[in-house]
Each structure stands twice: as structure tokens, then as C-alpha cells.
């Protein structure tokens, strides 16, 4: 059955992005399943990132730890007008950090890291690179589930080492070899760029602010270029556990060829499976706490 925007009643705004606005929306047909979705409405008709996101989610949204696509709402032209997505009640990790107003501890961060890695593992197995991993694109369930969202910058590679260094995604979380492909020529692995971004995001959750620049500094192009390409990789403070410090260091290896792979990181003690249930509970507790604020 074909869907249209008018099939949905918009209830509230969940978030704004570059591409458009995401609403909670109820399907007007009472038997619709699920009754309430996150409706991502693209601002521009024919937005190429909308077509890309629909294509990638059609391929990958059955994967665990990837946000589920329920319906593509077509526009008159080629690109979709909107996507009906699984509603993630905890919002994004950027939102959680903002609402908490303080950094997160290692245990809930381990739950984020482990589930994001599982999501990346599934995506990379499908030859999908995300290219825009950051706290605002990691979404939370009420029980501490984490799912990867926002595939507007993603790409399906035709070959394993398909070059895809083209400039998409948010510069702040971009790996050195993507930021400056010429300086890092010969050191290129499209999947490793997602690992760098995850490392920056994880460290941001621990510090409570973007880790590559001094707190409060505007992330303009020149400052980011200096920090990402010419600076030392940032590290957690000495007070952090040895496991956490090592995990972050393995993600933020400046040379892509030396950076840990997703599979290696899934074996890292910081995200050990035996602690996964505990870690998720700690994350769920934070989500509940932020709800009450
Ligand atoms: P940007 O360009 O800023 O990365 P975008 O326009 O591509 O954003 P999204 O990242 O998909 O849009 O969504 C914007 C925000 O809306 C998210 O950061 C999140 O807060 C909220 N959001 C998106 N999808 C969902 C969802 N399925 N459930 C709950 N909240 C969501
Ligand atoms: Mg986003």
C-alpha cells in the first residue's frame, strides 16, 4: 500500500538536522503497526542524501543496533519525502549528555561502545560505511539499547576498498585520512574511518565536551584541520581505567593501517561480553534519570 505524508499526524519535534526535521508521528489508520514512529521529513525535494539513506536502510535496517525503517514515504520526484523510522524513546546520546549536564561514566559508555561496534560490524559486513558517526546519530532505547541512525552520509561500497574519501559527514568527527587524503595517501581503509569517529564520540561522552578542541572553542575548519591532522590524538585523563584508555587509543590511532578493526575492538576487555548486561543497565539508569530532569 502506498503511503503519503498525510497518513501521519505529527505530534512533536524530536530533532532538527541538516537535512530536515524528525517528528514523533501517529499513523492515522488505527491498526497501523507500529502506531507511532519517528518521521524524518526531508527539507528539500530531491535531496540526494534522502535517497541514499532510504537505500542503505532498506539494505541494513534488519541488523541489530541499526535503527529500523518502517516505511519510505515517496515524493513526486525520485527521492523520498520522508522516512518512517522506529521511534527510539531515549533520543540521541548528544541529547542525553545535554540533559544530564555532566559527563558519563565508563560503565554506561561501555554499553554504548559495545552496541555501536555490533552495529558497525553488521553494517561493514554489508559493505556499508556510515561516515557520520557522532553522539547525535546514536539513538537510545529505554532499556539501554543503542542503535546507529542517520545514513544520509553513508555509502554502499562496491568493492572492499572502494575509495570513498569524498567529503561528506561532519568534519569534527572525521578521521585524519579522510580529512586530508593527500597527506595520508596509501593509508586508507574506508571502514577504519568509522572506528575513528566512534573513538571521538566515546571520548566526548567521557569528557562531556568535544575532545579535539579546548572546551568552548568553535570547531571551524582551520582549528579542526590542526587538531585532527597535525595534533596528537586526544587521550582520556590519567584517572580513567587502563582498559578505557587503551580502547580509546586503539580507536584514535592516527594511521588508519594501525587502528584497531571493529572485530578486534569487540574482543577488547573494555567491552567484554560478560559485563554487557550490567553496562546496559547502567545506561538505562542514565536514560531514566535524564527523563526525570
Ligand atoms: P544531522 O544532519 O544533524 O546529523 P539529520 O538531519 O541527518 O541530522 P538525524 O540525525 O537522522 O537527522 O536526526 C536528527 C535528530 O532527531 C537526532 O539527532 C535525534 O535527536 C532525533 N531522531 C532522529 N531519528 C530518531 C528516532 N528514530 N527516534 C528518536 N529520535 C530520533
Ligand atoms: Mg544526525
TrEMBL record:
Q: Which residues form the Protein kinase domain?
A: 8-271
**InterPro entries per the UniProt record, alphabetical:** Kinase-like_dom_sf (IPR011009), Prot_kinase_dom (IPR000719), Protein_kinase_ATP_BS (IPR017441), Ser/Thr_kinase_AS (IPR008271), Ser_Thr_kinase (IPR053235)
A single GO cellular-component term on record: cytoplasm
Which residues bind ATP per the record?
A: 40
Extent of the signal sequence: none
Note the Pfam families from the entry. Pkinase (PF00069)
Provide a Gene Ontology MF annotation, just one: ATP binding
Q: Which UniProt keywords apply?
A: ATP-binding, Kinase, Nucleotide-binding, Serine/threonine-protein kinase, Transferase
What CDD domains does the record tag this protein with?
Answer: PKc_MAPKK_plant_like (cd06623)
Query: What is the similarity comment for this entry?
Result: Belongs to the protein kinase superfamily.
Task: Quote the protein name from its UniProt record.
Answer: Protein kinase domain-containing protein
> Which species is this UniProt entry from?
Eleusine coracana subsp. coracana
Gene it is expressed from: gb19092
Amino acid at each position: 500500500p502506498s503511503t503519503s505524508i498525510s497518513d501521519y499526524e505529527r505530534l512533536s519535534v524530536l530533532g532538527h538536522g541538516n537535512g530536515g526535521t524528525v517528528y514523533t508521528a501517529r499513523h492515522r489508520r488505527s491498526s497501523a503497526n507500529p502506531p507511532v514512529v519517528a518521521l524524518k521529513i526531508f527539507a528539500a525535494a530531491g535531496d540526494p542524501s534522502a535517497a541514499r539513506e532510504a537505500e542503505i536502510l532498506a539494505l541494513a535496517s534488519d541488523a541489530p543496533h541499526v535503527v529500523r525503517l518502517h516505511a519510505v514515504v515517496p515524493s513526486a520526484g525520485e527521492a523520498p519525502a520522508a522516512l518512517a523510522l522506529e521511534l527510539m524513546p531515549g533520543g540521541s546520546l548528544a541529547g542525553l549528555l545535554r540533559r544530564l549536564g555532566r559527563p558519563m561514566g565508563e560503565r554506561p559508555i561501555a554499553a554504548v561502545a559495545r552496541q555501536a561496534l555490533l552495529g558497525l560490524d553488521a553494517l561493514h559486513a554489508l559493505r556499508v560505511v556510515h561516515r557520520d558517526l557522532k553522539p547525535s546519530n546514536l539513538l537510545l532505547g529505554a532499556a539501554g539499547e543503542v542503535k546507529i541512525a542517520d545514513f544520509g552520509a553513508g555509502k554502499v561500497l562496491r568493492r572492499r576498498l572502494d575509495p570513498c574519501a569524498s567529503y561528506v559527514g561532519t568534519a569534527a568527527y572525521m578521521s585524519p585520512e579522510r580529512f586530508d587524503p593527500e597527506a595520508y595517501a596509501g593509508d586508507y581503509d574506508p571502514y577504519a574511518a568509522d572506528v575513528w569517529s566512534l573513538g571521538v564520540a566515546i571520548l566526548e561522552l567521557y569528557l562531556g565536551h568535544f575532545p579535539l578542541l579546548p572546551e568552548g572553542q568553535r570547531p571551524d575548519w582551520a582549528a579542526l584541520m590542526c587538531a585532527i591532522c597535525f595534533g596528537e590524538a586526544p587521550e582520556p585523563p590519567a584517572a580513567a581505567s587502563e582498559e578505557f584508555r587503551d580502547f580509546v587509543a586503539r580507536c584514535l590511532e592516527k594511521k588508519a593501517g594501525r587502528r584497531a578493526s571493529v572485530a578486534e575492538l569487540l574482543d577488547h576487555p573494555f567491552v567484554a561480553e560478560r559485563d554487557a548486561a550490567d553496562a546496559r543497565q547502567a545506561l538505562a539508569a542514565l536514560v531514566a534519570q535524564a527523563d526525570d530532569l
